[in-house]
């Protein structure tokens, strides 16, 4: 906004309102979550969400293959919880790969067409790590203190918390990132760059303190100064 000439005094950083639901909506505890999932959690649990990479000519299938190879190397006491990809171009190829992979690993891989928001976030809160290329790994996972392995370029350029481990989409790089995330474990005090779940209150406070509308409509261009020091 500043680069577009907006008055800096009228720019307020309030965080994303979409995270406010993490404060308002209680998540399922472990017992209720296991009942909702229809399966028990394991000693170690990894949540996998991988969507098509629309700018890649193969929609990210090669990246997914590298990821699945790396996941197969995890200890046997790890359960991999997976939801199907979104409807972007290339989604059918990603889903087909995941279906074949999960069917060959009954008991170790739990595949869901959709977990829904409550089950998904509750599972995330109980996971040892989130892996894939979904925005939820950058958006919600840090607020829950869960480490994220973000693969490839799908989320490139987006802000990320210190709990997010970005990695190239190779089997070796993903394997190293998984080991690092699992050793790191769930954390407290992670600062989420997208907010702390109290955005709605801040927005209301800003709106209450706005000057008269006529004053707001009289715009003046404010040059954006870039420091070269």
List the helices and strands and how they pair.
Elements: H1 21-24, H2 30-37, E1 44-49, H3 61-72, E2 78-83, H4 91-103, E3 109-112, H5 116-126, E4 129-132, H6 136-139, E5 148-151, E6 164-167, H7 171-184, H8 199-208, H9 213-217
Parallel strand pairs: 1-2, 1-4, 2-3, 4-5, 5-6
Helix pairs in contact: 2-5, 3-4, 3-7
Overview of this protein structure:
The longest helix has 14 residues, at 171-184. By secondary structure, the protein is α/β, with parallel strands linked by helices. The chain is globular, with a radius of gyration of 21 Å. Strands 3-2-1-4-5-6 form a 6-stranded parallel beta sheet, sandwiched between helices. Helix 4 (91-103) links the parallel strand 2 (78-83) and strand 3. The chain has 9 helices and 6 strands. The two termini are 22 Å apart. Helix 2 crosses helix 5. The protein has helices at 21-24, 30-37, 61-72, 91-103, 116-126, 136-139, 171-184, 199-208, 213-217; strands at 44-49, 78-83, 109-112, 129-132, 148-151, 164-167. It has 2 domains: 1-20 and 197-229, no CATH class; 21-184, 3-Layer(aba) Sandwich (Rossmann fold), CATH 3.40.50. The model has no long low-confidence stretch (mean pLDDT 90).
């Amino acid at each position: 906004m500043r680069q577009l000439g907006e008055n800096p005094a009228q720019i307020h950083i309030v965080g994303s309102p979409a995270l406010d639901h993490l404060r308002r909506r209680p998540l399922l505890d472990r017992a209720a979550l296991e009942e909702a999932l229809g399966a028990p959690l394991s000693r170690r649990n990894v949540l996998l969400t991988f969507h098509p990479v629309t700018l890649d000519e193969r929609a990210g299938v090669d990246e997914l293959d590298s990821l699945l190879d790396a996941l197969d190397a995890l200890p046997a006491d790890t359960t991999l919880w997976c939801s199907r990809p979104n409807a972007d171009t290339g989604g059918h190829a990603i889903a087909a790969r995941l279906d074949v992979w999960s069917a060959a690993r009954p008991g170790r891989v739990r595949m869901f067409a959709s977990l829904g928001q409550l089950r998904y976030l509750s599972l995330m809160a109980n996971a040892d790590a989130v892996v894939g290329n979904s925005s939820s790994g950058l958006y919600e996972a840090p607020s829950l203190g869960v480490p994220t392995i973000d693969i490839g370029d799908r989320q490139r350029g987006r802000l990320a918390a210190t709990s997010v481990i970005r990695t190239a989409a190779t089997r070796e790089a993903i394997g190293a990132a998984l080991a690092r995330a699992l050793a790191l474990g769930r954390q407290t005090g992670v600062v989420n760059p997208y907010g702390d779940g109290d955005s709605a209150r801040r927005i209301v406070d800003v709106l209450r303190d706005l000057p008269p509308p006529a004053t707001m409509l009289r715009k003046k261009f404010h040059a954006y100064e870039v420091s070269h020091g």
